[in-house]
Automatic annotation (TrEMBL):
Protein name according to UniProt: Alanine--glyoxylate aminotransferase
Entry's Gene Ontology BP terms: cellular response to estrogen stimulus; glycine biosynthetic process, by transamination of glyoxylate
InterPro entries, per the entry: Aminotrans_V_dom, Aminotrans_V_PyrdxlP_BS, PyrdxlP-dep_Trfase, PyrdxlP-dep_Trfase_major, PyrdxlP-dep_Trfase_small
Gene Ontology MF, one: L-serine-pyruvate transaminase activity
E.C. number(s) listed in UniProt: 2.6.1.44, 2.6.1.51
């Protein structure tokens, strides 16, 4: 299929200088079998010149090729060329039919625990032209990201950057760099994320101690200090926003306990950053990390992380190298310009488009203001709570102050199959809500209204979908 488009004189794209005279000018756009668009600029004055140059160059190359066939080198390489030709024509697996169809992505209301829907401004940032990951302009964008993370973390730490990967990448980076084989670590487990950190620490040979509560449970400072005194860990881990249970854990005073006992304090804010207050410096948090795809509203794939001076001293005075080269902060600190060296050296190719979107998401949060973001998440979640209670549903976390504003957990209503409810909502409302995760599977359903999705109109949509599902799905039990 061929389409023709025209531009006024002097405004058409291309590298040819426009003429004030009138000429036949058009752009023919044709689609090749591979789906790539080719643009051919036609100009009656330039076409003849281009053709002459093309055929002259072609004649010269043909003459050179013919002459080379008579050379001794050509005779020796002929068998090789024949084998190469045969190898290039020996494809036995055809192109998959699915790859010859256009990409299709359905519209979904992502009202689960993440990722959340991404606003147009951030999507537009991800469509910007790619630049080199070591270009000066890229370094400037990375510097912007660093300052944006310092703002949302409320820290002045120089060792602040974004991992190339999901929140799990930051999780592993923290453990890999902080802990050596045989060292004691203490992990607070009240959902899936403590379980993950414990497994990561065990895989590198740490002596792991678990402080365990059922999903939704929280730890008193007294319980934490008693465990720290008993196990004498080099690192204590706590999840601030436990999305599998919908809990926002209190943090005040825990950093002081860790400093008193010469222990580093590591906190996960993947589900809470931007939705609930966190103050890295004031709360004496030594290592803090998050993810891009929750309340920050960027696509998945980048993960903010920060280390204070206490953490850096432990990290850069290790007896052994970290088990991961990719996550080794000795290299990443240089890549992000955090080590004070005048030049940044190649370490890995960062996700350029991912950094564009993360930078834009941090910019939006800075423009809105952290306190305003926290306030809005609190207001919308409270509005959702009232609506859920009006439907006769029970909130999983009874204490209002301990509920995670970004992810609300509902106790599965008696007599219903939670999978049927969620399947109905997806099918009839194109809306994602999810069940539990890890130890909370079969205990809760989860609704996430965070960042761009944090609006009362979206809460109304979620409540309407739930009401419809409760009315339409049959109870499996009395």
């Amino acid at each position: 299929m061929t389409h023709t488009a025209s531009w006024p004189t002097g405004q058409r794209p291309g590298c040819f200088k426009s003429s004030p005279k009138t000429h036949s000018q058009s752009v023919l756009v044709s689609r090749s079998v591979s789906g790539v668009l080719f643009f051919l600029v036609q100009d009656t004055r330039t076409t003849a010149v281009m053709q002459r140059a093309f055929f002259s160059r072609g004649a010269l190359l043909a003459h050179q090729a013919a002459a080379s066939l008579d050379s001794p080198l050509a005779a020796r390489s002929a068998p090789l060329l024949q084998r190469l030709d045969r190898s290039m024509s020996s494809v036995t697996i055809p192109p998959p039919a699915c790859m010859l169809r256009p990409l299709e992505v359905p519209l979904r209301y992502l009202f689960g625990p993440g990722p959340s829907n991404v606003p147009p401004r951030i999507l537009a940032a991800g469509s910007r032209p790619i630049i080199g990951h070591l270009h000066p302009e890229m370094y400037e964008i990375m510097n912007d990201i660093k300052r944006g993370i310092q703002y949302v973390f409320q820290t002045e730490n120089n060792m602040t950057l974004a991992m190339s990967g999901s929140g799990h990448a930051a999780m592993e980076c923290a453990v890999f760099n902080m802990v050596e084989p045989g060292e004691s670590v203490l992990i607070a487990i009240n959902g899936i994320w403590g379980e993950r950190v414990a497994e990561i620490a065990e895989r590198i040979g740490a002596n792991v101690h678990r402080l365990v509560k059922s999903p939704g449970g929280y730890f008193t400072n007294k319980e934490i200090e008693q465990a720290v005194e008993k196990h004498k860990p080099v690192l204590f881990f706590l999840t601030h926003g436990e999305s599998s249970a919908g809990l926002c854990h209190p943090v005040d005073g825990i950093g002081d306990i860790c400093r008193k006992h010469n222990c580093l304090f590591l906190v996960d804010t993947v589900a809470s950053l931007g939705a609930a207050p966190i103050f890295m410096d004031k709360q004496n948090i030594d290592i803090l990390y998050s993810g891009s795809q929750k309340a920050l509203n960027a696509p998945p794939g980048t993960a903010p992380i920060s280390f204070n001076d206490r953490a850096c001293h432990k990290m850069f005075n290790r007896k052994t190298k970290p088990v991961s080269y990719l996550f080794d902060m000795a290299h990443l600190s240089n890549y992000w310009g955090c080590d004070g060296k005048p030049a940044r050296e190649y370490h890995h190719t960062g996700p350029v488009s991912g950094f564009f979107t993360l930078r834009e998401s941090l910019a939006i949060l800075a423009e809105k203001g952290l306190e305003e973001s926290w306030k809005k998440h609190k207001e919308v979640s409270a509005y959702l709570y009232r609506g859920l209670e009006d439907l006769g549903l029970k909130l999983f976390i009874p204490e209002r102050d301990l509920r995670l504003p970004s992810v609300t957990t509902i106790a599965i209503p008696a007599g219903y199959n939670w999978r049927e409810l969620l399947t109905y909502i997806m099918k009839h409302h194109h809306m994602e809500m999810t069940g539990g995760l890890g130890p909370s599977i079969g205990m809760v359903m989860r609704i996430g209204l965070m960042g761009y999705n944090c609006e009362k109109t979206n809460a109304d949509m979620a409540l309407h979908a739930l009401a419809d599902a409760l009315k339409s799905c049959k109870k499996s039990k009395p």
